[in-house]
Specification:
Elements lengths: L5 H19 L6 E2 H4 E3 L5 E10 L12 H13 L16 E9 L8 E8 L10 E8 L5 E8 L5 E3 L6 E3 L4 E10 L13 E5 L4 H15 L4 E3 L4 E4 L7 H9 L2 E2 L7 E4 L6 E3 L4 E2 L2 E5 L2 E12 L10 E13 L2 E7 L3 H10 L4 H13 L3 E2 L1 E4 L1
GO cellular component, one term: outer membrane-bounded periplasmic space
Subcellular location: Bacterial flagellum basal body
InterPro entries: Flag_FlgI
Length: 374
């Protein structure tokens, strides 16, 4: 076991703390068009195939319970010119029926290799050490776009640090790097279209308008025009090649519009994620023996005489959370949801209670944010 000096540990802890602060700090910066949008027509296509894995060490399908494995073997043998006698009872333990999946990337050409995932569909115990036989991979249109074959690599087998324990995870799924060869290219007319369409990953009219203004500023007026809050039409100039234009287009920086207040709540773990400070209005929630009261009152700050100052009025909220008699948590801060969540967690509120309280606040109109439960 490697040993670390106290100074090294302090340095490591300081480095981790600085990294956390940098990640948590709200640095406002522009995003590239390629990070917030996709080019319409540039996408991958899913491929799927059915095949056989052979060479297993007695961990294959039990053919008495998986008749499709036996039928597949007989069909393969017939294609290879071997005819089995009628009524032959095959008892094979080294073969497994599998589904092979992959994705055909945009602009893929014949001869290009793809990674494939091989998953058992029978009752095989393990695919470790197996070899996938030639398997055609088809698209949604039923056409064959790639052929797959090769030796499987199955992970999930390891030993503990002290060597006394062995950890075996999922052994019925394996991968083959460069295990498929593209046999057919998808037709793509992107480089010959007069208009290129950008699709924002998140629909937003303000962001779409900012993208249009940034493109027109770089390439000239009327180059881009927004169809909606998600789709933007772009007309490439004739003086530039299509590839060069798209390369320059993707690197344009665009200022993102302010995102709406949103809360993500995981009902299973109780995790709460907020993308900005969410405001709360005055409300009172009673949930079993738990009560939450939020009172917002104005506080007026009066400047001293002859100071040429101005009277300032600010809203200060008092959050009272009571779960047990005589136990009240008071927070004299602005009406902020993070303060409510902290106070609720401090008194041991369950995720179900937190979800019920937030939903009640949202239904009453006191929670000024979109609430999404996952």
């Amino acid at each position: 076991m490697p040993t670390f000096k106290p100074s090294a540990l302090r340095t490591a802890n300081l480095t981790m703390l600085l990294c956390a602060l940098l990640l948590a700090s709200p640095i406002a910066q522009a995003e590239r068009i390629k990070d917030i949008s996709n080019i319409q027509g540039v996408r991958s296509n899913q491929l799927i195939g059915y095949g056989l894995v052979v060479g297993l060490d007695g961990t294959g399908d039990m053919t008495t319970q998986t008749p499709f494995t036996v039928q597949s073997i007989i069909s393969m043998m017939n294609q290879l010119g071997i005819t089995l006698p009628p009524g032959t009872n095959l008892q094979l333990k080294n073969v497994a029926a599998v589904m092979v999946t992959s994705a055909l990337p945009a602009f893929a050409q014949p001869g290009q290799t793809l990674d494939v995932t091989v998953s058992s569909m029978g009752n095989a115990k393990s695919l470790r050490g197996g070899t996938l036989l030639m398997t055609p991979l088809k698209g949604a249109d039923g056409q064959v776009y790639a052929m797959s074959q090769g030796n499987l690599v199955v992970g999930g087998v390891g030993a503990a640090a002290n060597g006394s324990q062995a950890q075996i995870n999922h052994l019925s799924v394996g991968r083959i790097s460069d295990g498929a060869t593209v046999e057919r290219a998808l037709p793509n007319t992107l480089l010959h279209q007069e208009i290129v369409k950008l699709e924002l990953k998140e629909s937003d009219f303000s962001t779409a308008n900012n993208v249009v203004e940034a493109i027109n500023k770089k390439f000239g007026p009327m180059t881009a025009q927004a169809e909606s809050g998600r789709v933007i039409q772009v007309r490439p100039p004739e003086s530039m090649s299509r590839v060069s234009f798209l390369a320059n287009l993707e690197t344009i920086n665009v200022a993102l519009a302010a995102t709406p207040a949103k809360i993500i709540l995981n009902a299973r773990t109780g995790s709460v994620v907020m993308n900005k400070a969410v405001t709360l209005d005055s409300c009172a929630v009673s949930h079993g023996n738990l009560s939450v009261v939020i009172n917002t009152s104005p506080v007026i700050s009066q400047p001293g005489p002859f100071s040429n100052g101005q009277t300032v009025s600010t809203a200060v909220s008092e959050i009272n959370i009571n779960k047990e008699p005589g136990k009240v948590l008071k927070l004299n801060n602005g009406a902020n949801l993070s303060d409510v969540v902290k106070a609720l967690n401090a008194i041991g509120t369950t995720p179900q209670d937190l979800l019920a309280i937030l939903q009640a606040m949202k239904a009453a109109g006191a929670l000024n944010a979109e609430l999404e439960v996952i």
